[in-house]
Design goal:
Elements (H helix, E strand, L loop, with lengths): L2 H16 L3 H14 L4 H10 L3 H14 L4 H9 L29 H4 L2 E2 L6 E2 L18 H8 L1 E3 L6 E3 L56 H26 L4 H7 L4 H14 L18 E4 L4 E11 L5 E14 L2 E10 L1
Antiparallel strand pairs: 1-2, 3-4, 5-6, 6-7, 7-8
Helix pairs in contact: 1-2, 1-3, 2-3, 3-4, 4-5
């Protein structure tokens, strides 16, 4: 079979798939691969037409083997990261021969372009509607993301998302106080009833004369006043001495009380999120995960080295390493000094 025939078969299969007839497209792609086993476009579209994840991973691996620079194959393999690779049933052992060195006919970028559906995660042709789940990729929201958002809450200490029923934060390790007060009254002490007040009109209390005390000597009062004045003078002197001896470190200690590694890590994540193309898709590691380093440079300056996984402009999840330097300026304010990224 001529190389141009492989190209025509692939184009026919693409048209069938876009029309919703994936089963009819599979035999055409198998025939194209039988003639040209290293045909990247045929492998990519065969992965889209198949429904078994293990078989889809096998086709994507073959496409990447045919073209190690294939970004579409790399994006597709991210979805099947934990799925074993299995040769498709449609490919008999005799179907794919040794790799051919023949040139493949022209397949345009529009024919072979694939994107990942943000709703079902499947590889599909560009357009408004996904060819796998049939939903509008422009306006609909992934229900899985809504469920995850409803089932989580931010940690009141480090602001990381945690489960709504969590009692200990898995990021900072702090205990979360209960939001309800126990209503069990079985262990309360019994309350003794108070006797009713006596009517002051009908039963006036008896007046009792205060005991007559002996007149104290007037010489005691000046001595007490003198002792009070001396004590106040000693306390004032001691306070002035302590304030002078620790005056230099008061400003630094005030800054130190609001600066710590966790706060610096949270602020760096905020600065990095502001620069992402899709901030809502950002997934950061915790401060204790591998690849995260937090260094205190001085009393109020920190350096954070970490990474973030987020979608790029094409909807693919990529990992970006960053180095962030921040300084705490007091009153819960942070200043970004330097931020570099390495995609």
């Amino acid at each position: 079979m001529e190389p141009q025939s492989s190209t025509e078969l692939t184009r026919q299969a693409i048209a069938l798939k876009k029309a919703g007839d994936a089963p009819s497209a599979v035999p055409l792609l198998v025939q194209a691969l039988a003639a040209t086993p290293n045909f990247e476009a045929a492998w990519l579209w065969l992965a889209v037409c198949l429904s078994v994840p293990a078989e889809q991973r096998y086709c994507l691996e073959q496409a990447l083997s045919a073209n190690p620079e294939s970004q579409q194959a790399r994006v597709g393999l991210v979805r099947f990261d934990h799925v074993p690779s299995v040769r498709p049933v449609a490919l008999s052992p005799e179907t794919i021969a040794a790799p051919s060195d023949s040139a493949v006919g022209e397949i345009t970028a529009a024919d072979t372009a694939l994107i990942q559906c943000p709703l079902c995660g499947a590889m599909t042709a560009p357009g408004r509607f996904c060819t796998e789940c049939g939903r509008n990729m422009d306006t609909q929201v992934n229900p899985v993301l809504l469920v995850e958002a409803e089932a989580t809450k931010p940690c009141p200490f480090c602001a990381e998302p945690i489960k709504a029923a969590a009692i200990v934060c898995r990021f900072c390790g702090r205990d979360l106080l209960p939001t309800t007060i126990p209503t069990d009254t079985s262990n309360r002490l019994p309350i003794t009833p108070i006797a009713p007040l006596v009517n002051p009109v009908t039963n006036p209390p008896e007046l009792v004369s205060p005991p007559i005390r002996a007149k104290q000597s007037s010489s005691v009062t000046p001595i007490l006043l003198l002792l009070v004045v001396l004590g106040c003078a000693v306390l004032w002197f001691m306070g002035a001495f302590r304030s002078n001896s620790s005056g230099g470190g008061s400003a630094a200690s005030a800054v130190d009380r609001g600066a710590d590694n966790i706060s610096a890590f949270v602020m760096c994540k905020q600065f990095v999120t502001d620069r992402l193309k899709a901030p809502s898709t950002a997934v950061f590691p915790s401060s204790v995960d591998d690849g995260v380093t937090i260094t205190r440079l001085d009393t109020a300056q920190f350096k954070v080295i970490a990474y973030v996984d987020s979608q790029n402009g094409f909807g693919a999840m990529i990992r970006t390493s960053y180095t962030c330097a921040v300084r705490y300026t007091g009153n819960s304010n942070w200043q970004l000094q330097n931020l570099t990224t390495d995609p």
